[in-house]
Amino acid sequence: MSAFQVRRLRLAAGLVLLAYVVLHFLDHALGLISLAAMEAGRWWFLALWRSWPGTVALYGAIVVHGILALWLLYQRRSLRMPPWEALQYALGLLIPALLAVHVTATRIAWWLVDADDPYTRIVLGLWALSPQSGARQVIAITVVWLHACIGMHYWLRFRRWYPPARPWLFGVALLLPVLALLGFVSAGREVTALARTPGWTPALLASTHAPDRAAAARLLAIREGFLDAYLLALVVVVAARGVRRLQERRRSLQVTYTTGPIVAAPIGFTILEASRLGSVPHASVCGGRGRCSTCRVRIVRGLDALSPPSEAEQRVLARVGAAPDVRLACQTRPSRDVTVTPLVPPSIDPGGALAPDARQGRERELAVLFADLRGFTRMAEHKLPYDVVFVLNRYFATVGTAITGAGGVTNQFTGDGVMALFGIDDGPATGSRQALAAAQAMVEGMTRLNAELAGELKTPLRIGIGIHAGPGVVGWMGWGESFYLTAVGDTVHVAARLEQATKDFHAELVVSHEVARHAGVDLGAFPAHRLEVRNRTEPVAVRVVARVAELRPMLLSAP
Ligand code: FES
Predict the structure, then answer these.
(1) The dihedral of CA 357, 361, 362, 366: what is its sign?
(2) 140 Cβ neighbours under 8 A, 6+ residues apart
């Protein structure tokens, strides 16, 4: 079974356990109504989870999830991992130890010594008779819930629907354990009041067959046996890792990165593990689980010696339209020296993972916007360097917010200029409309900024914007830390020329006919010109918009 299939199985088991925990929390929350409501909810809960299918599903999931977690811990060659993954591992490893008491006191006791475990008796124990056990139980469910939430978040974050749903899911993730805890507290108070009735507690313990001393000793032995076995399993995994490490040290290979470093890694490491071993920044949004594709690398040398990608790896690579020489670094274990080029910048966000791979260097139809501050160089000569930086940063924040707010990608803040791309994934029609909306938002933002900086500036800041749409080669380009999504080609060249032309026309915006056509906006009210552009035989037809505010009615009536 491949690591990918192991993770899939583990995820399926985790989802069964999550369903169990959610229903358990909901049952606890019924305590806010009454103890009786909790007991009624428990009847349904047990009907499901203590039935044969429920038992097989639950305990099967516990065994599969636990064993596969240990297996994956053994499998991974390097324990260097992102903090969120380390936290999830640590919480997961704590869970068996924290829950052993509760499970033996409820389910195992019911199985072995016929002890019933209604909420009334369990809450009495945790709330009134042994509050320290109650506190431990609260810690245990917090650990379980955090472990589950981290797992769900890092699983779901590649889904397109997830970012907008995230605040709601976060609310649910917060509310559910809080309600469960409040239900437990409310039930605890109710039980405490009942326990004041003379004879009530002994009667409850007798009627529920609470374990006597001998049964309690038997349950304790089972619990300690389980904890010993669990500890032993952990020790075995760590020891096996150590033995393998010693063997692998004798046989190593070189992973050469075309971006610079060379890492000597033991044979058996994945390329991603080699990157982590050598502290080479390497994108791995899903933490090496073979889901996100962000770790993908082009194999420049050594492709022939690699074993072919698994079906699962092929599926992920196909989703991003990867070329045949591209592999997932987290799934590829070279047995000889390889030379690789990471294809995604280490700073990629989850939204960029699994995006149709326009971002690997493809020709796209898009809209490109250039903007520049007018006369800023002259103004800067009379200002202190600190003031120049301050004003420029405010300006970049203003235009950057306008661009990203309209759906564009900011790119290349150079001097007092900025370049932005629109419609990379959605095409030139959307891109052109977004670019025009961004121009409007930029000018409005500059008006607000001028009002704010009125005391600092002798003359208001003015901006010139050029927008053109057409084909361009889009991809992540650069080196080291300066690695960003950009575009090259004639469209970029023309957009830059249009921005320059705003100076000649004393206008805020010069926009090509192509942009107006793609956006479906009638710019016939603005003067038309034909601009010569270097290296182009044909002049570019443009409209000159002196004041961007005048665009508003056209944009409002656009499709
Ligand atoms: S790190 Fe996500 S697929 Fe490799």
Answers:
(1) positive
(2) 95, 98, 99, 102
Calculate the dihedral angle through the C-alpha atoms of 546, 458, 438, 470, rounding to the nearest 10 degrees: 60
> Which of 80, 284, 297 for a ligand 1 pocket mutation test, highest count of atoms within 8 Å of Cβ?
284
Q: What is the pTM of this model?
A: 0.57
Residue with tokens 């139980």: 137
Lookup: tokens for 405: 């707010």
Q: Can you point out the beta strands (E) in 94-203? A: none
Per-residue pLDDT tens digits for 353-411: 545 444 456 677 899 999 998 877 777 666 666 677 888 888 888 898 899 888 888 87
Give Cβ neighbours of residue 81 (< 8 Å, ≥ 6 apart): 89, 276, 287, 288
User: What is the 3-state secondary structure of 247-265?
Assistant: HHHCCEEEEEECCCCEEEE
Residue 506 per-residue DSSP state: T
Is 290 a pocket residue for ligand 1 (Cβ < 6 Å)?
Answer: yes
Q: State which ligand 1 atom lies nearest to the alpha carbon of 290.
A: 3
Tell me how far apart the alpha carbons of residues 512 and 442 are, in angstroms, rounded to a whole number: 18
Q: Are strands 338-342 and 252-257 parallel, antiparallel or unpaired?
A: parallel
